[in-house]
Design goal:
This protein is mostly helical. It folds into 3 domains: 231 residues, P-loop containing nucleotide triphosphate hydrolases (Rossmann fold, 3-Layer(aba) Sandwich), CATH 3.40.50.300; 187 residues, no CATH class; 129 residues. 57% of the residues lie in helices and 5% in strands. The protein has 27 helices and 5 strands. Strands 2-3-4-1-5 form a 5-stranded parallel β-sheet, sandwiched between helices. Strand 3, helix 7 and strand 4 form a beta-alpha-beta unit. The chain is flat and about 85 Å long. The N terminus is likely disordered. It comes from Mycobacterium kiyosense.
Length: 584
Amino acid sequence: MAATPPQIRLWDDNPSTLDLLGFDAVVEPIVAAVRERNIHPLTLSVQSPWGGGKSTILKLIEAEFKDDDTCFVVSTNPWAYDDQVDVKGTLISEILHGIESQIPDPSIKAKVAEKAKELLGRISWSRAAVAIAKGALTFQVDPKQIAEIFQPKDPGGPDSMAGFNDAYKELLALIPNVERVVILVDDLDRCLPDAVTATLEAIKLFLSTEKMVFVLAADQDMVRDAISVSLDGARRGDIFAKRYLEKIVQLPIALPRLSATDAEAYIGLLIAGRSMKETDLRVLAAHVRARRNAHQTPLLHDFEALAVKPAEDDLALATQLAEGLSADRRSNPRQIKRFLNAFGVRESIARARGVTIPPAVMIKMLLLEELHRTSFNTLAAANVQERKTMVARWEAWSNPSGEEGEDATLPEGIDESTKEWAAAPPSLSSENLDPYLTLAASLINVSMGAQVSDEVLAHINDLLGASEAARNVAADSLSERGEDEQLAALDVLFATTKRMEDGEAVIRGAVLWVGKTPALEQAAAAGVEAHCWGVRLTPGAVVELATSGRPALIGLVRRAAQDTSLHPSTQAAACEELEQLDGN
């Protein structure tokens, strides 16, 4: 009989209907605003950076109205639409079908369906005009039909969007006892700029109709930038985009970032939930909520009244993770899940290979690998006999209160930013780390990619931009960070190459950055070879390397001059630059 494969502990990235994050404090006022009779129509926006829990908020709001016959809820996601030519028409159509599908009375449903058909007829003409204007209709169309499509319509006629609002009000009037129609719009910040604007234009159509409430889940800065890009041809700037969004969104609500206490509870609930029934997890989540509302900490504590309690080892792991993760990653639910999944994969592979590594040790080593890659590489490269001595010195340096005569100097090649990591439990000086290091070395090409903060990502985007001033500011800001964080950010910079036609902008940014942080020179050279060589290496990129003044980067120019696999123009540029360099 084949052996049973080891169980892997993974956490999905789907929005949840079970509140593990303390979002009730946000959901309750949103629901109250939706139910408020004197405020309608209304548009709210739930705002947070990537991975902050916006989609979960929408699921929790939807659950609040599940048994409420006076409120219709329609969930939509413009990012997932197949028809990206006419997002506006698709959204309106989805709202109409969503309302119709929730009417239980057959006779009323038939009347609403007939009215919806009229409204959809207006949309069809609008869609045809959009498609032809954008060149999306490539089949032959009768010229008379095209002329009819673009001919001004009677504002009150069945083909005119001008009469849409009145017709929609008539549709709602057919449905008795319905006090609210709530439209939940997810992933707006993932949409392309034109789709963002089209979605907001569709929402604007409903904003003179009573009973309508829209709840948008999006990063407001990204939406505002998308509006600005979409309207760039009209020469409307960022100020107009800001005012346009403010006109549509009456009530912006920012999700709070997770505190250290809430992050520890969230991690504990995620880990404990893997071995609990859903009913028991709901009881535990309610217990945490009660302690949070009573301002009692730690949140995962005092389980005497619970029939099923979380394991002590799980709680210890949650505490260790909450203390070890960087503040930026600890405050982001998606980042927490990504780290837990990396841990789950390592744990599963270790079991499959018969390698025994205590979970607390694996967590601490994975934190070192993810947050301090240079120091991790130094430890992995050390002689097996030297590792225990190195770790002992490392921990003594981080907490210099050991026995007299103990060497408390920081080992060579270890970054000072690792002090908190080294001082945190458990101590590794007596542990055999070879199994973990061997496992990590075999997986290093498939481990999680470098994770950086939103602020660092913004600097990287500026570094790739057209503005020289913005690039200089970004390089200055990045160079002020710790070496490990800069190396992780440099990995992210080079990873963007796969989304570009060539690597010139990436190399230009890397050269500027290395000029301010010379310690990155070798890593930058390796990044160019790994990500920008071949067809992505342009003559302009060669010039950037040649004028960098850094030996490792100039060495790449010499290699390019000899590499016949490169484009002839790139190789010729390398030869010309070398002539100038060698001539000087």
